[in-house]
Specification:
β4 and β5 form a beta hairpin. The longest helix has 18 residues, at 149-166. By secondary structure, this protein is mainly alpha-helical. It has helices at residues 31-35, 45-57, 71-83, 90-93, 96-108, 120-124, 132-143, 149-166, 169-172, 176-183, 193-199, 209-218, 220-223, 230-234; strands at residues 115-116, 188-189, 247-251, 257-261, 268-269. α2 (45-57) packs parallel to α8. The two termini are 29 Å apart.
């Protein structure tokens, strides 16, 4: 899906330097203050760092995104990003589980959630769709265009990661349904906690948000067809990455290589 909501003809995102200064803290700051009104400053550093770290170190880890790190180390990691420290070692702060919670925390701390309550009624509309194909079209044409582009950018980046995680559910035990359960509460927030809880439900009796998120995780390539490759999301060129940025090749703990396709397709083990 090519984004067509919020505003038109948005500039190509650029990746900010790790040493660039932000006018406000990263956690709890408005996305527009960090990324620019049109997302022109790119995906925030903390999201890029966490995605890279999880891709390299966490794809096979059982219970990924479910286990909690030390709360003290989590606060220290948040403070490091709020200070925009030049070098931040996620392994030293707690590794994969810290990176996973840090990523979810960024979304949870946003003053304006990715899916605000004013679009809950639109999200609920997915429950009226008669087939999965209709649901996919509804997500692409009715829900996602309502998001401001910065929100759309960080959602897409994280869903691309979650798609890769669920491809390894036989090892990490995190199916699309399990990922939806642990992720959906971080994407909604209103003055009515019960409404937030209900919108996250999956299936025919759910509020629509869970169904939407699960489909986005499972069918990422169909929802975001024609989108940017991995490197636009995760940052500057790194070792093992093709010059055109179409693929990000990462080493896994299994001493094999995983080629993470930019189109959201399955990993290729080499």
């Amino acid at each position: 899906m090519k984004y067509s909501g919020g505003f038109n003809n948005s500039p190509t995102p650029t990746i900010p330097s790790p040493t660039s200064e932000f006018k406000s803290k990263v956690f709890g700051a408005r996305l527009e203050d960090i990324m620019g009104e049109n997302g022109e400053k790119g995906v925030p550093r903390v999201i890029r760092d966490c995605i890279r770290f999880i891709l390299v170190n966490g794809i096979h880890v059982e219970g990924i995104f479910r286990r909690s790190p030390s709360s003290k180390l989590l606060q220290e990691a948040k403070a490091a990003y709020d200070r925009n420290d030049e070098h931040i070692d996620l392994e030293a702060f707690g590794g994969v589980h810290l990176a996973c919670v840090l990523l979810k925390t960024f979304f949870r701390d946003l003053p304006e959630p990715v899916f605000p309550s004013k679009i809950y009624d639109v999200i609920r509309g997915i429950t009226a769709c008669q087939s999965e194909k209709e649901q996919l079209e509804y997500i692409k044409n009715a829900i996602l265009p309502l998001l401001p582009y910065p929100s759309y950018m960080i959602l897409r980046a994280s869903l691309r990661l979650l798609h890769q995680v669920q491809l390894h559910a036989s090892e990490n035990l995190m199916t699309a349904s399990n990922l939806t359960i642990v992720w959906s509460p971080n994407l909604v927030k209103s003055e009515n906690p019960l409404a937030d809880f209900n919108i996250c439900g999956m299936g025919a009796q759910g509020g629509g948000g869970g169904t939407m998120l699960k489909l986005c995780i499972e069918r990422f390539a169909e929802v975001f067809e024609g989108e940017e490759p991995w490197e636009v999301v995760t940052g500057a060129q790194s070792e093992g990455t093709q010059d055109d940025g179409v693929e990000l090749v990462v080493n896994t703990p299994r001493n094999s290589q995983v080629s993470v396709s930019g189109d959201g397709g399955e990993n290729r083990l080499e």
